[in-house]
Design brief:
Layout (H helix, E strand, L loop, with lengths): L6 E4 L2 E4 L2 E2 H8 L3 E5 H14 L5 E6 L6 H10 L2 E4 L2 H9 L7 E3 L6 H9 L4 E4 L2 H13 L4 E8 L21 E2 L3 H9 L4 E7 L9 H20 L6 E3 L18 H12 L5 E4 L3 H4 L3 E13 L2 E6 L8 H5 L5 E3 L8 E6 L8 E8 L7 E4 L21 E5 L2 E6 L4 H5 L6 H8 L1
Parallel strand pairs: 4-20, 5-6, 5-13, 6-7, 7-8, 8-9, 9-10, 9-11, 11-12, 12-13, 15-17
Antiparallel strand pairs: 1-2, 2-3, 4-14, 14-15, 14-19, 16-19, 17-18, 20-21
The structure holds pyridoxal-5'-phosphate.
Pyridoxal-5'-phosphate binds next to helix 10.
Length: about 425
């Protein structure tokens, strides 16, 4: 059975750290996300350890899992944050990550967001277009401050991952073409409210081969050295995130953290830049499960369908990226396995959580764990079909707490209103 050291069977019951998932289901009902604090902490430590001889800092990419508790846990480890919206800055600050450790990335930032970021004393803003540079310069000038800016270059390297999470080719909306970096830097240096501190890139997500990183880092290193030789005083290189995780847990990991770190060392180890890393998925994916209950089983044609209480709105990855998640029963049995389609109750054929998953016979009410749901799980959830947002539970040893409590149906209606004139119109 594909499990990890922090999510594994003890006896016949699947545990997350020291707590049986069945106990979590009893306490918080299903569906619910469960995260292992030790798992996230260990991943963070593995990252810092792999990079310990390099002048590198970690800025956790908030969008992978923006839970305040997860952010606090990482803040306590010393992590900074990589954010892509005002809301994420707000979260990072609320979790205790100071502005001075936050990097603001993102393909489009509104004037409000830029102004707010400057007010927090943000460490660095990664600018993605010539127009954004001009807007930021104006806003910073109006505040009598200077903005520390890196230019996000598009290295035109195919990350060889799913097309919806590729960001570093010229056909993507992200960054400016690397050939325009010099023009950009020249303009930025002429603006008194802008301090140009570095270059940034992020070529995509769920990258499981060394070659895209190797190619992109080579290009970034060469570009940085060229720009430095032309007199631009670059201090930081932001290498983005993108290190993939092993969603098929029985398979050996295709790109190990150590090999990723070695690729960084190879290109930047001898260069004078501070390195900024923005891992998201690699820090949290393995430490989360989505716990769900079987509602019904039915057979149609040759297929065995398990209808469960979690759905595509709770875990979008399979529908959005054709992503695979392993699914295991919470109670292990010796009964023979047969392939099942695990589907949710949402009225869409794409509401399929996994295809062809070998599972034992299951009855209504039985629990299943959808593995490696710690990244881009809860963060991508929606309320489609008026399904309430899934609660999230953090476990540490034998302690557990709801870090996102299950909302109620009145809360769902709260931001909405029915204008009085709707009924007046009817009365006429
Ligand atoms: C999403 C994102 C990341 C994190 O990507 P992962 O694949 O989760 O590591 C890092 N940097 C930027 C700019 C991003 O948009």
């Amino acid at each position: 059975m594909p499990t990890t050291w922090h999510i594994r069977y003890q006896g016949d019951l699947l545990h997350i750290e020291d707590i049986a998932l069945s106990a979590i289901a009893d306490a918080f009902e299903t569906p619910c996300y469960c995260y292992s604090a030790a798992g996230i902490r260990t991943q963070y430590e593995a990252f810092t350890h792999a990079l310990k001889d390099l002048p590198a800092t970690i800025h956790y990419s908030v969008k992978a899992n923006p839970s305040l508790a997860v952010l606090r846990l990482l803040a306590n480890q010393g992590s900074g944050a990589d954010v892509v919206s005002r809301g994420e800055i707000h979260r990072a600050l609320a979790a205790g990550i100071p502005g001075g450790k936050i990097i603001f990335s993102g393909a489009g930032k509104s004037p409000d967001e830029l102004a707010y970021a400057l007010d927090t004393g943000i460490a660095q803003i990664n600018v993605e277009s010539h127009e954004e540079l001009e807007q930021l310069a104006e806003i910073a000038a109006s505040k009598n401050t200077t903005a520390r800016v890196a230019v996000r270059v598009n290295p035109d390297i195919d990350a060889q991952t799913h097309k919806k999470i590729t960001t570093g080719t010229t056909d993507n909306k992200f960054g400016i073409p690397w050939q325009e970096a010099e023009t950009f830097l020249r303009r930025a240096s002429s603006l008194p409210s802008i301090e140009t501190v570095g270059l940034a890139m992020h070529i995509g997500s769920q990258i499981v081969k060394p070659s895209p990183f190797d190619d992109a880092f080579a290009r970034l290193a060469a570009l940085a050295e060229e720009m430095r030789s032309k007199g631009f005083p670059l201090q930081t290189l932001d290498l983005g995130g993108g290190l993939g995780t092993n969603y098929e847990n029985d398979a050996p990991l295709k790109l190990k953290l150590e090999d990723y770190a070695n690729t960084i060392r190879k290109h930047f180890g001898a260069l004078p830049y501070r390195l900024l890393l923005e891992p998201g998925r690699a820090l949290v994916a393995d430490s989360g499960v989505l716990l769900t209950r079987v509602l019904q089983e039915k057979h149609s044609g040759t297929k065995r369908f398990l209808i469960v209480d979690a759905a595509m709105n709770d875990l979008m990855r399979p529908a959005l990226y054709d992503a695979h998640h392993d699914i295991v029963p919470v109670v292990r049995t010796d009964a023979p396995l047969s392939p099942a389609e695990v589907v949710g109750p949402v009225c869409e054929t794409s509401d399929t959580l996994a295809r062809n998953i070998p599972l034992p016979p299951l009855a209504s009410g039985d629990l299943l764990a959808i593995l490696q749901a710690g990244a881009y799980g809860a963060s991508l959830a929606s309320m489609y079909n008026s399904r309430l947002r899934v609660p999230e539970v953090l476990v540490s040893g034998s302690k557990m707490a709801a870090v996102y409590r299950r909302p109620d149906y009145d809360e769902m209606l709260k931001p909405e209103c029915i204008p009085e004139w709707l009924d007046e119109d009817i009365a006429k």
